[in-house]
Amino acid sequence: MEIVTRNIVRFLVQKKLLDQDAVVAGGLAVSMSRSRNRFVRVTQRGGPGFFIKQAIATEPMSIETVKREAEIYRGAFGDERLVPLRELLPAFHDFDESQNILVVQLVDDAENVAEHHRRLRRCPPDLARRLGQAIAGYHRIRFEPGKPQAALFPQKPPWICDLHVESDVSRLRRSRAASSLTDLLLEAPGLAAHLAAIREDWQRDTLIHTDMKWENCLLAPRKAAPEQQRLLVIDWELADIGDAAWDAAGIMQAYVNFWIGSMSANGGTSPDALLANAALPIDDVQSAISSFWDGYVQGSAAYRPVTDAFLDRCVRMMAARMLISAYEMSAHVEVGDPRLLLVLQIAFNVFENPRQAAGELLGIRRHQVPDAMLSAPSSQAALEQSLTHEAQHV
């Protein structure tokens, strides 16, 4: 059965999630959307709401990801190894395996963390610390390397790590801007080696979200005081048994990209001009990143003894995650935002010296950003020339 407006109510009644009397009384509202999967939001007057996700039957990847997310929800409420997830997830109601339909609590009075930062126009350190603690919490879910794991988890590094070994990258050429960016990444000096190093060092010992970003973190209720808001993490379709550093890197790059996003192109589109017109002070961003890292390390027994080495891995993965963000920025436009080039340039520079980036860009050790971290080193002269050449297209 394909979930559509005319049968969604019947489905919920059959699952004993919705009372027939509530249907008769009225007050139900249903809205639908679609991306990788079908989504349905159901609200009712005086009763709980439901968020329903159904795989698209003709798309194998859609089926796989919905089943994977359902496994996360079922495990969190049934497997003792996944207990740290329970406080981060909306309530789990049902998974219909025959129709690949997942039903969870609708968190309708919430804003995601990206919206929260845009509304405040700053980066609260207390929230950053909570994010670090939350991610460290589910990273305590450990798996023994080499032992068989659930078939639903592919245990693969993110796609960006395979960019230079893929025989066909045509799927990445979704727009003129995306095509130009793909060519730039393929030709960037040294990038293949950096990504190969991440791929070869990839750990497979903990549960990771894989698509960790502000948009997948919710604060509810929306208007409550910060200390009274619940933090939830949603959209576990790409969850995997993998490398904890990747999730931490996702939050780090969110802060850096938020800073870049505050830059105005009114004074010019060169990196120097953009940096000079940042509305968000870098000190604000660095303070939040430092708090995030403190929260993560305090909550992580596994990585506390090897903090420096783990930090270096997180920073290198942050650079790779920034490349994914740059691609996402370009995927559906013909001419990209000029700030996209700055995302790329900083990512490449971070790859060149992750230890320096940790202290001087992210503020985890020192709160300053020297020119060396924001301008291309001499070894990347060819890349700088390529960036300049592609600026009108990306």
Task: Give structural attributes.
394 residues; alpha+beta; 10 strands; globular
Helical amount: 40-55%
Largest sheet: 5 strands, antiparallel
Low-confidence stretches: 366-373, 375-394
- Counting H and I runs of at least 4 residues, what is the number of helices? 15
| Backbone structural class | alpha+beta
How would the global form be characterised? Answer: globular
First CA to last CA: what distance? 42 Å
* SSE run: HHEEEHEEEHHHHEEEEHHHHHHHH
Going across the major beta sheet, what is the strand order?
A: 1-2-3-5-4
Taking all Cα atoms into account, the compactness measure Rg is: 22 Å
Can you give the mean pLDDT?
87
